[in-house]
Design brief:
0% strand, mainly alpha, 18 helices, 399 residues, Growth Hormone, Chain: A
Length: 399
């Protein structure tokens, strides 16, 4: 595994996802400023995710056809610019437009970055992808605290601070273009060496995996969107505590993400994905019956762990199903499937408007068992390939 590339792309992932992490923490401020309903607030998250879902496969397709390292800095800047300008808006409609702009930026970064991580990972693809995922986890964790602190000092106009980290990282990323192109060229040479049998894409298996990822994203985005609101509206805590709960949830997921990657390299992706859904089946129903804010905060530890444990195995499994379209696979698993899950957030918001925020959380808690059953149909190609690598494969790994 070429650690330099993996850690660099993970750092870029962190900077990009600070914006995704900050968006839910902005919702209580937007609700207070514009007197929004829960449905309208959740629709801001929906707008950002729909933008990603539409365009991310196109970026992935472009990455497969030609190396496009410029997508990395462009994506980061666009993600920060979109969300950074929301605090300067005078209307809800402009917030929605800028959320879409931010979503396009997120869509540009992820497929190319995940593709390069796959190339740099060698034999430890799940571990490398978990490190890449941890970058996003840290971004989601930093985002709420970062933006809430800025808004407490400068009001809604403080959202412009989101431009600072993306601009710095984008400048540094542009200095690495030649290295990224060399990595892609090396991978192409390895694939064309004699003795390596061409791999076939398994679209049917990939479609089943996509359904499972949609389920995970509904749970993730539902929790990530409504945790701050739940802490304020149901547990009667401050906005700061609501943001803290969101960060605590993301930080606990970092451990789950790293553990999930390492376990998947040993046990296979399917087992880890099933473990994640089973853990959520046990702990999410317990969470919704906790009325003490401190105990509820502690319950975020196992929930974050099991939810994030399935992150990197899902991405790598998708890349394994479509070995000839790694960028497209990454665009779908990181973007489309994830963003389709975001389409459920307005529905959950409607439940909160009609029945209360507690019932919205109940609707989320019912989902893990459904997608645990769906995940049972998945196959794990790594189990077949990891046992007896061919002579040609061994030569490539040492090349």
């Amino acid at each position: 595994m070429k650690n330099k590339f993996v850690w660099l792309l993970s750092l870029g992932h962190m900077i990009t996802d600070i914006n995704q992490g900050a968006l839910p923490a902005l919702l209580p401020f937007f609700i207070a400023e514009y007197d929004l309903s829960y449905t309208a607030a959740a629709s801001i998250v929906f707008a950002a995710n729909v933008a990603s879902s539409i365009i991310q496969p196109l970026f992935g397709y472009a990455a497969d056809k030609l190396s496009k390292p410029w997508l990395l800095p462009m994506g980061m800047i666009t993600a920060g610019l979109g969300l950074g300008m929301t605090g300067l808006c005078e209307s809800y409609q402009w917030i929605l437009v800028l959320a879409v702009v931010s979503g396009i930026g997120v869509a540009a970064y992820h497929p190319e970055a995940a593709r390069l991580v796959n190339f740099a990972a060698g034999n430890k693809k799940n571990t490398a992808m978990s490190i890449f995922g941890v970058g996003g986890n840290i971004g989601f964790a930093i985002g709420p605290v970062f933006i809430t602190t800025a808004l407490l000092y400068w009001g809604l106009k403080g959202t412009v601070v989101l431009l600072v980290p993306v601009l710095i990282m984008a400048v540094f990323m542009t200095t690495q273009f030649s290295s990224f192109r060399a990595l892609t060229a090396t991978k192409s040479i390895q694939k064309n060496k004699a003795g390596v049998e061409p791999e076939r894409d398994n679209w049917w298996a990939f479609i089943r995996l996509t359904i499972v990822i949609v389920g995970r994203s509904i749970i993730f985005l539902g929790l990530n969107t409504f945790i701050p609101i739940y802490w304020v509206g149901y547990l009667h805590q401050s906005k700061v505590v609501g943001s803290l709960a969101l960060s605590f949830f993301a930080i606990s997921g970092i451990i789950g993400n790293l553990a999930g990657g390492k376990l998947a390299d040993r046990l296979g992706q399917k087992r880890v994905i099933l473990m994640g859904f089973l853990g959520l089946t046990l702990f999410l129903p317990l969470f919704i019956f906790i009325n003490n804010a401190h105990v509820a905060l502690l319950s975020m530890i196992p929930i974050g762990f099991f939810l994030y444990a399935a992150y990197s195995p899902s991405i790598v499994l998708g890349q394994s199903y479509l070995p000839n379209r790694i960028g497209l696979s990454s665009g779908i698993t990181l973007g489309v499937a994830f963003s389709i899950g975001g389409a459920a957030t307005p529905i959950i918001g409607k439940i909160a408007d009609v029945y209360g925020i507690w019932f919205a959380m109940v609707s989320i808690a019912c989902l893990p068992i459904i997608f645990f059953v769906a995940a049972m149909s998945l196959s794990d190609p790594q189990k077949n390939s990891a046992k007896a690598p061919s002579k040609a494969t061994k030569e490539l790994l040492h090349a």
